[in-house]
Specification:
The protein has about 375 residues and is α+β, with helices and mostly antiparallel strands. Helix content is about 45%, strand content about 20%. It has 3 domains: about 120 residues, PAS domain (Beta-Lactamase, 2-Layer Sandwich); about 90 residues, Helix Hairpins (Orthogonal Bundle), CATH 1.10.287; about 150 residues, Heat Shock Protein 90 (2-Layer Sandwich). Strands 1, 2, 3, 4, 5 and 6 form a 6-stranded antiparallel sheet that branches. A 5-stranded mixed sheet has the order 8-10-11-13-12, with helices on one face. It has a two-stranded antiparallel sheet with strand order 7-9. The longest helix is centred in the middle third of the chain and has 54 residues. It is elongated. The structure holds adenosine-5'-triphosphate and magnesium ion. Magnesium ion binds next to helix 8. Adenosine-5'-triphosphate (ATP) binds next to helix 8 and helix 9.
Length: about 375
């Protein structure tokens, strides 16, 4: 057997000063619940001098309304088998200072059998500051949540009401262009202005649609119209819309769909929207002459998609923010609203799929997402 280390007994005077100097209140009481020890910490917390409290009932340190219950608990504790316990396991503990002020406390009590009978000892800490800080954090959080809700409601409302007038501008600009094409006498400058109006109002309409989608996703109200969906057709549709943009910056769009991808259950319009957002980004952040590849393959019960570019990439520090609403890298030209990826993620999750992004600064970016072959309930998102 290894020898037991010899430990010197700590002198009582040292123990007494350890007790005295503790920042917590350390209070002892005898069998009659009369105070026998009241350390410096207790003096600071309760505002009584030790001489004022010695011999006084312990319950004097509790608010009046708790005294009867406390005496009852103490008697239970004195006769019970448990030698120590945390006070307030069932409800919060409060103390009362000499000036009558109440405060919340963390306290534990122990019962020690000694030659002079039972000694109760209470260790107590004033937690008013902590509770105040917790309360402040709760209030701030609630206020921030309310502000976000108010902003989203407002956004939803404003964008909804903006749609009709914007569509009116879009329609009328389109009508002027069609009149000119039909050979009607429309001055050249008017037709040219109508073209700019059409382009601007189309952009505005797309932005409003994105804002509405984001509010829908946020409130979990995005509804999918699931039906048999062909992955290749969805990809070709998205690529078709983006072809002019890609041609403008000489970016080559390549599509590769595995033969084994079956028709699957999804919302085809949302899938096109999602692919358009990803391919749009890939084109927007790629240098002229580079390639953007869109791939799809079946893996078990899922379709795996990937949109790959060799563009400017996203730095490792910025990557975790990429899916945040309104987030845009400071390094990129900030056309757009920073909503495309947030919406893309929302659409994938609404289908019960997963999305992730891999990127190397200066090298390129790939966004991977999976959609289940059979539409399923989306998992609960925290
Ligand atoms: N393929 C990519 N390559 C490099 N950076 C990207 C790529 N995709 C997204 N990003 C970065 O992430 C940001 C957010 O993308 P997101 O699609 O959400 O918004 P956006 O394209 O800026 O605007 P919106 O899509 O609303 O028109 C972009 O501004 C860009 O900084
Ligand atoms: Mg985008």
């Amino acid at each position: 057997m290894p020898p037991t280390p010899r430990m010197n007994k700590i002198p009582d005077s040292v123990l007494a000063s350890v007790v005295d100097l503790a920042t917590d209140a350390i209070i002892c009481a005898d069998q009659q619940y009369l105070v026998t020890v009241f350390n410096e910490g207790a003096v600071r917390i309760f505002g009584y001098q030790a001489s004022e409290m010695l011999g006084q009932p312990l319950s004097k340190l509790l608010p009046q309304r708790f005294r009867a219950r406390h005496d009852h608990h103490l008697r239970d504790f004195a006769s019970g088998r448990v030698a120590s316990r945390r006070m307030g396991d069932r409800a919060e503990v409060f103390g009362v200072r000499k000036n009558g002020e109440e405060f919340p406390a963390d306290a534990s009590i122990s019962r020690v059998e000694s030659p002079v009978g039972i000694v109760f000892s209470v260790v107590l800490r004033d937690v008013s500051e902590q509770r105040r800080a917790e309360g402040m954090v709760r209030t701030l959080l609630a206020e921030a949540e309310a502000a976000i809700r108010a902003r989203d409601d407002m956004l939803g409302l404003v964008s909804h009401d903006l749609r009709n007038p914007v569509n009116a501008v879009k329609m009328l600009a389109g009508a002027i262009i069609r009149m000119q094409r039909a050979g009607e006498p429309v001055p050249h400058a008017v037709a040219e202005h109508a073209g700019v109006m059409l382009q601007a109002s189309t952009q505005m309409d797309a932005l409003i649609q994105d804002l509405l989608d984001v509010t829908l996703l946020e409130s979990g109200k995005m509804r999918l119209v699931a039906q048999a969906t062909n992955a290749e057709r969805a990809i070709r549709t998205a690529v078709g819309t983006l072809a002019p943009l890609a041609a403008g910056s000489a970016v080559k769009l390549t599509v590769s769909v595995d033969a084994g991808v079956p028709e699957f259950e999804a919302d085809p319009d949302r899938l096109v929207q999602l692919l358009s957002n990803l391919v749009g980004n890939a084109v927007k952040f790629s240098p002229p002459g580079s390639e953007v590849r869109i791939e799809a393959a079946r893996v078990d019960d899922e379709v795996h998609f990937a949109v790959k570019d060799k563009g400017i990439g996203i730095s490792a520090e910025e990557l975790p923010r990429a899916f945040d609403r309104y987030w845009q890298s400071k390094r990129t030209n900030r056309s757009g609203a920073g909503l495309g990826l947030a919406i893309a993620r929302g659409i994938v999750q609404a289908h019960g799929g997963k999305i992730r992004i891999e990127s190397t600064s200066g090298r390129g970016t790939t966004v991977f997402f999976t959609l289940p072959l059979a539409a399923s309930e989306p998992p609960d998102e925290g």
